[in-house]
Amino acid sequence: MNIRDVVTYVVAMASLRRKPNSRYWIACFTHVNGRRAQRSTKTTDRRLAQKLADEYEAATRARMTEAQVRRVLSDLHKLTSGSTLPSASVRSYLDQWISAKRGTVAESTKTAYEATAREFCEYLGKRAGEALVYIEKSDIAGFRDRVASSRAPAAANGRLKILRIALQQAWRDGVLDENPAGKVPLLKVVRAHVTSRRPFAPKELQSLIRAADGDWKGVILFGVYTGQRLGDIVPTPWGQSRPRRANARVHHAKDAASPGASPREASERMA
Question: Is the full-model pTM beyond 0.85?
Answer without folding.
Answer: no
